[in-house]
Fold each of these.
Amino acid sequence: MVAAVRRYGPALVLALCAGALLRISLFSTLYLRYVQPGLRPYLIASGVLLLVLGVVSALAAAGAHPHPDEHEHGDGHGHDHRDGPRVAWLLVVPALALLLFPPPALGSYSAERDAAARYEAQGIGTFPDLPKGDPVEITLSEFTSRALYDSSRTMEGRTLRMTGFVTKDDSTWYLTRLLISCCAADARPDKVEIHGTHAPAVDSWVTVTGTWVPNGEPGSDQAWPPVLSATEVKQVEQPENPYEKR
């Protein structure tokens, strides 16, 4: 048994890693919890390559003859100098986790760690008019950009609708979304302070409808965080892609 594990261990590790990648990218959309949609082809290609390498490794191990360096020590245990580094077995843990218990998308804990985040100076200017008709579906990133830097105040007087998850800070609650450039590792929180309604449960996903409350001059510290006066809060399922692209 031990000899079989030694012989086929590398192939098993490669197969598990391949299965984990293909499970989240080819057979589901779980990869969206960790990376941008555009990276899906690369994840699938990596999974297929690892699977091929695993098969090749297994076939090579099956056809291999006993190596002259294999010998028995006095304690009765065999020793094979062809053994790979044992640290490689640590890859089995994250691979099994992705296969059996895929970690959820980042939530309120990640957002609160960077609660003091501010937009870097983007310059005050004008933005295109919002589409006609209310309510207007808008992302959190667009809402905060317009609230902070739109000198024409194109959102004023309009009814807006956004979706995000709930975070809290003492008696204040926020509609929050994490923005990523590439993957969850570079996630940055974007949040809107909500007035006019009681806070839903932390980490629950909601769609909020309301009107923007101008606060401070564009580009000033007083303009952060932007505020929405809510008229309706509806609990929803987490979207397939929980992140917004920045």
Amino acid sequence: MKQKLQFFPVTIFSMVMGMTGLSILIGKFYHLQWLPYILYPISIYVASALFLTFLLLYGLKWIYYPAEVKNDFHHRIRINFFSAISISLLLISIDYYSFMPLLAVPLWWIGMLLHSFLLLKTIRFWIEHNFELQHFNPAWFIPVVGVILIPICGVDIAPPFLSYFYFSIGFFFWIILFVLFLYRAVFHVQLPEKFIPTFFILIAPPAVGFVSYMRITTSFDNFSLFLLFIGYFFLILLAFMVKNFMKLRFFVSWWAFTFPLSAISIASVAAYQITHMPFFEIISWILFFVTVATIGIVAWQTIVNMRIERICVEEE
């Protein structure tokens, strides 16, 4: 058991992101009376329990194996996944915002402050260390996605300028990192197999950006459509690449499939709530079933690989 704890991966918090994204999506469907109420609190409690369990286990790893946690925090790839902890907090605060707002507000403040700290630490790490182009992968987008999440509840909790501040940072770094990603993907060697699922992270910034922008401006305008349709474009592009994903061996990184699908589904539901256009209703239902099926498959594979002890092992 102690050996498993020693190699407990910080990347496991991407599972919380996926499950919390699904819970928010179920909440959206419930509020539109498309799903029964009972599924909403169940999904919230499952996501919350996962987060608390993983936080406890990683906390124990920090106590018993501080050197391993330090190695994670100074690893060129794993450092980006520490932001998944603060993102999980922010997503849980969004989840509770219409369910238990008195709990959502302190969770948002903790998530916002923690994510701000982790974002600055991560960017400083990028600047202070020598990176080659092959070190870049879509996991670098994770801190950026978290920044764009902050305004979703922040517009009601904190002064408006704070939401504009974080949205501006997220949008700025999304553009820069996307240029780097495109250059790396086209003109350099292919990503290792375990990082191929992180391609789905490309969907998240424009999808989350759409929801965040709508919350800040309360305006369904050309720029909001630009963000939404960029998200759809990446979704269609990845659908065309489906053969590349079907043949992959299982890694914890498979959970990178889940949150971006939830994010673009939530964005589609939000678009329907504003426009009441049948197009967005149909897209919402299609993406809902795709998201649920994907999370079901990834969760099952996670359980199977836990049973054969392929998770919580030493990584390269």
Amino acid sequence: MKGPRVIFLIFFVIFAGILCQGLYNIHPFGEPRVSAMDDYFINNAQSERAANNVVTSIVFDYRGFDTLGEAAVLFTAVMSVAALFRKEE
């Protein structure tokens, strides 16, 4: 019975270490990270995508396929719930 407890303890210590490392590396709340990609989107969104809203240009143009995938997953989830709760006649 000692073997499984030791293995569990080792995995628990490793997992706790990973969580503590992640919490240590988190940036402070309210201080946004600024990157070159942010500056690129802000400076080029209107000229490249003809959109006045930067968020709209990112969601629908730069990340269009990702947004399409998210919509497909949402549609599948809604249809699954509707099929699950339909009434049998």
